[in-house]
Amino acid sequence: MLSDVLSPQALPSTPEPRTDLLIPHYILERRDPFDAVQQRGVIGSLDLQATQSGHVLRHQQVGESEVRLQTQLLRERGGSSDPLLLAAPDLGGFHECVRTATELQPDSVLETPEGGELRLWTADPRWTASPPALGPLLLAAGHHRLEAARRLHRTHQGPDGGRVPALVVDHARHPLTLSATHRALPGLDLARAVRSASRFARVRRRPRGSCPPPSRGSFLLTGEGQTWEVSAISGATMASRLRRLPSEWVELDAAVSDHVLIPALCEDQGILPKPRYLTDYPSTGEVGLILPSPTWNQVWAGAASGAGMPRKSTCVGPKPLPDLLARLA
Fold first, then answer.
1. pLDDT at position 209, please?
2. Which of these, 135, 170, 229, 261, is most buried using a 10 Å CB contact count?
3. Helices 235-242 & 262-269 angle (0-180, nearest 10)
4. Does 133 or 81 have the greater pLDDT score?
5. What is the mean pLDDT of residues 285-298?
6. Helix/strand/coil (H, E, C) string of the chain?
7. What is the distance between the alpha carbons of residues 94 and 41, in angstroms, rounded to a whole number?
């Protein structure tokens, strides 16, 4: 079961739940266009020290340039109006907080991009004054913003008082979606890339039309209305390019994509391997690489081991609406 996959109790030395981990401000319920509950959770302020105490586990590595950008944005804006997204394997005492709120009429209702509703309730002051204990959480989205806020706080420049806005969702009852982040490859010639890949992998042309996602260990090279499946990459090629990476990454498709396949194809054409990251499939007018979806086992294992996953390995949702807190102010 998914809740078992995401249970921190399976880990050694799991830290005890903390009552100061999240101070609640709003209760959230997201419904799809058919009025089914997609997501329930609590919006509040999260302790920035929670990563050190083991109560917030990060599953992706961050890129330095993106952290610098987020640091600049936090300085300019005086904080963030976009909450981090965290998955709670167990909401603990917050279950009661969410249950009692969602039995009432919402204080605010916002439309979601897909045509559903986001319902919000202001948290009862008694929950804010005395928050329930909360166990370890998985950081699902917002790794760069969290790292930027931590750095600003360490240098006493942070506007947040040691806390950041966060949406903690009930992942056990309403699981987040999980898919891959794909890559667009500017400047890459598709025909030459196909020939290059065939020297160290099995390459097979897919029929035109529907483009189902690749299976684990396979990739789809797309462009010009064509799709080629790349699989069974040579063990020697893999070993030579992955040997300096964490051993936990060897079987991760994002690591193979970014450290084996893309560099090999770009080097052969004399261009820099600088992919652009996409949450949707690349358009027909650009060459792209479609990755298979990761699994929650991989996500949790990366978080638990501390090795994480390569940057831009996952696409998790549904994410908080943009500028959500600004709309509620």
1. 76
2. 261
3. 90
4. 133
5. 95
6. CHHHHCCHHHCCCCCCCECCCEEEEEEEEEECCCCCEEEEEEEEEEEHHHCCCCCEEECECCCHHHHHHHHHHHHHHCCCCCCEEEEECCCCCHHHHHHHHHCCCCCEEEECCCCCEEEEEECCHHHHHCCCCECCEEEEECHHHHHHHHHHHHCCCCCCCCEEEEEEEECCCCCCEEEECEEECCCCCHHHHHHHHCCCCEEEEECCCCCCCCCCCCEEEEECCEEEEEECCCHHHHHHHHCCCCHHHCCCHHHHHHHHHHHHHHHHHCCCCCCEEECCCCCCCCCEEECCCCCHHHHHHHHHHCCCECCCCEEEECCCCCCHHHHHC
7. 9
Residue 191 amino acid letter: A
Which residue type does 241 have? R
